[in-house]
Design a protein that fits this description.
About 20% of the residues lie in helices and about 40% in strands. β2 and β3 form a beta hairpin. The longest helix is centred in the N-terminal third of the chain and has 46 residues. The termini are far apart. About 5% of the residues have low confidence.
Length: about 475
């Protein structure tokens, strides 16, 4: 019975090897086979098994041990290389993380471009570099704030730029009626959208949609039907159902552009099925944002990283803070870059993070504190960290200057695994958009924190007032 049980265990262990798809899983399977084979050798030796069977079980144990030892060495080598690579990344990022703002050579600024065509990043005294939205990148929302990525690869030896931005963008709203002459919508500077839309030809627009405009790239042409003067295509314009007509001067066509289509080859017109229908895609153009950015040199040896907040459109500053009493709590998310660097056997960890953010405002004293916690690191795993944003004042317009009464930075304190680092760094921000109750409804800000000589972090946050 003991021999049979040991043989069954070995058979099961060998079967487990077939399902192992990673080196770690294969290592575990070979160790299991080695153990089961050793147990079979013991059972055979104890209960009168043949010398041939004992030798066969011993060979299986030896072969499994050899395979396991080789895999263990391979895994150890890979871990050593990964640790060395992380140490190098952590060192470069530790050196490159800087507090936002500054002046002269220390300038670290990012802001939406004035023409709303991307994000401008300024490092030192160099000319700002414009980053455009990477529409192929997916950035998950952070505590309900929409995520986007911006990138740039300037010509020459300027390296690469990347930024991740989170914004409190509302969903597109229902707009005016299609035939509302006072709505003020236009495809260009001179033509309003009343009655039929007749200014489609030659304009790149993301407002047109039709099952017939189904190509993912290039140009699709539409032949004029026999005995017809126009091409007729059902579709929608800004969410309003209707029909596209093209009176050809050549061959009517739709060409895929960066955003939408360019219609050409004739005079294109759109006629709504119901002129009383309302536009359904009026985008939110007034919102606040926060995020981080990083620049990597052409040779990949130098990193520069910081954080920022910015406003698109118009989001009113807070007012009357000095007249408020009571308290308010604000909750949301944070994101940024971090580096823990040690050349003496300590932790090496670096990359970007997301986290939770909380502000606690005391309007009676016009003071505010905050906490960043629930960190998730670059590997997607949680970190037992928190960053305390030390108490500072709020001015009547909602500005959080991050200073004490002596105009010194109140700073931050980064705690790792229950051990708090010394207070240092900085944080600042502002509350905006007074609600109906007179209390600001949103807040954004940046923070910079250190942990001894080994850790640096820079980030930004966006929060909404709790109900």
């Amino acid at each position: 019975m003991a021999i049979m049980q040991a043989q069954t265990a070995l058979t099961n262990a060998e079967a487990g090897l077939s399902g192992a798809t990673t080196d770690a899983a294969m290592l575990a399977a070979y160790r299991a086979i080695q153990t089961a084979a050793d147990n079979l050798v013991t059972a055979l030796s104890t209960h009168g098994g043949s010398a041939m069977d004992i030798a066969a079980a011993a060979r299986k144990s030896g072969n499994a041990k050899a395979m396991a030892d080789d895999l263990a060495d391979k895994i150890a080598d890979a871990e050593t290389k990964a640790n060395m690579a992380m140490m190098a990344t952590a060192m470069k990022l530790y050196t490159g993380i800087s507090a936002p703002g500054g002046s002269g050579a220390d300038t670290r600024i990012a802001d939406y471009a004035s023409a709303n065509d991307g994000l401008d990043v300024t490092i030192g005294t160099d000319t700002a570099v414009n980053l455009s939205e990477d529409e192929d990148a997916t950035v998950d929302a952070n505590h309900g704030w929409e995520g986007m990525m911006f990138t740039a690869e300037p010509t020459g030896d300027a390296g690469t730029y990347e930024a991740v931005v989170y914004s409190n963008v509302d969903e597109p709203m229902e707009g005016a009626k299609f035939n509302d002459a006072t709505a003020g919508y236009s495809l260009d500077a001179t033509t309003g959208e009343t009655g039929d839309v007749t200014t489609l030809t030659g304009h790149m627009t993301d407002r047109v949609a039709s099952p017939s405009f189904d190509q993912s790239a290039g140009t699709k042409t539409f032949e004029l039907p026999e005995n017809a003067k126009r091409v007729v295509i059902p579709g929608s314009y800004r969410g309003v159902d209707g029909t596209y007509y093209c009176a050809p001067t050549a061959t009517c066509s739709a060409t895929v552009e960066a955003e939408g289509f360019t219609l050409a080859g004739g005079t294109w017109t759109f006629k709504p099925d119901n002129p009383e229908s309302r536009f359904m895609d009026v985008p939110d153009t007034d919102y606040v944002s926060y995020g981080w950015w990083i620049h990597k040199s052409e040779d990949g040896e130098t990193f520069t990283a910081s954080a920022f907040t910015s406003i698109r459109g118009t989001v009113a500053a807070a007012s009357g803070i000095d007249t408020l009493k009571g308290t308010a709590t604000y909750s949301g998310g944070a994101a940024g870059k971090y580096a823990l660097h040690s050349s003496t056997g300590g932790t090496n960890d670096a990359g970007h993070f997301i986290a939770s953010a909380m502000l606690q405002a005391d309007f009676g004293d016009d003071m505010i504190t905050g906490t960043i916690d629930n960190f998730v690191g670059a590997d997607g795993e949680s970190r037992n960290w928190s960053v305390e944003l030390m108490e500072t004042d709020i001015n009547p317009a909602g500005i959080i200057d991050g200073q004490d009464t002596g105009n010194a930075e109140v700073g931050t304190a980064w705690t790792i695994d229950g051990t708090a680092g010394a207070t240092g760094g900085q944080w600042r921000g502002h509350l905006r958009a007074n609600g109906a109750d007179g209390v600001p409804s949103i807040g954004i800000g940046t923070f910079y924190s250190t942990f001894g000589q080994d850790g640096k972090m820079v980030g930004a946050f966006g929060v909404n007032k709790d109900d």
